[in-house]
Automatic annotation (TrEMBL):
This is HAD-IB family hydrolase. The chain crosses the membrane at residues 280-301. CDD domains: HAD_PGPPase. Keywords: Hydrolase, Membrane, Transmembrane, Transmembrane helix. The keyword Transport does not apply.
Amino acid sequence: MAALGWFTRRRHLATEASVLAGEASAEAARKSSVQVPAPKAPEPEFPVVGDERAAAFFDLDNTVMQGAALFHFGRGLYKRHFFRKRELARFAWQQTWFRLAGVEDPAHMEDVRSSALSIVKGHRVSELMTIGEEIYDEYMADRIWPGTRALAQAHLDAGQRVWLVTAAPVETATIIARRLGLTGALGTVAESVGGVYTGKLVGEPLHGPAKAEAVRALAAAEGLDLSRCAAYSDSSNDIPMLSIVGHPYAVNPDGRLRKHAREHGWRLRDYRTGRKAAKIGIPAAAGVGAVAGGTAAAVALHRRRR
């Protein structure tokens, strides 16, 4: 009996020791184990199919198209001998000055703008449209970013409307939008009466905050909910437009926009190679190209009518 009692006590002690060992082992395992994060819920489908109150707004230059639309337009006009290098250089330098200075002096900008508008004064809108159709096929069609084009098509396939939003003349923007099968375009509007340019703008160039105001106005007229809309741009100048929609995208972004997008959790898309990104990512260079091309177009129209 004594031996049996000893065996029972040893069994009891062993059970306590086993429990202690098990608890200690479990605690050690818990502390040393790799925490596996819970799986993230999949992002909701975007764009939302059938959402008629959603739409997409795309900047043009370096977002949808490589380079500036007006620069390519100017190339086409120069090829047709509509103006001389000396004339182009004079107007381009006026535009380059404030870019290099880093200050957009209102008085200087107004002087440049007035010069360009005075050149097209008295010319027909149809003339610009005809030239634009030809030059799109020559210089622009092969410069559309396939990646951005696919984004726009995704919105169209979802049954949503898609607009270009650009500082380029609305006539040029409309040609590009139509060729890409988009809904339409918002662009800078030059005043015309009876199809003839008066030499004045309606308001100001569609740039920076003006783009945001244009998108707001269109959304109100079309019954859109901006919180369900998307906007795409490469430039920090378009932060006002990107900020008013629920789905902002930085596409081929310049340095400032890339930084802003990361700080605010905006989505990024970059379809450039490293070398192209370095070149296109300089806002001043892109701006000079756009402005010089636009001025070239104005000069060419003037010479062609003389």
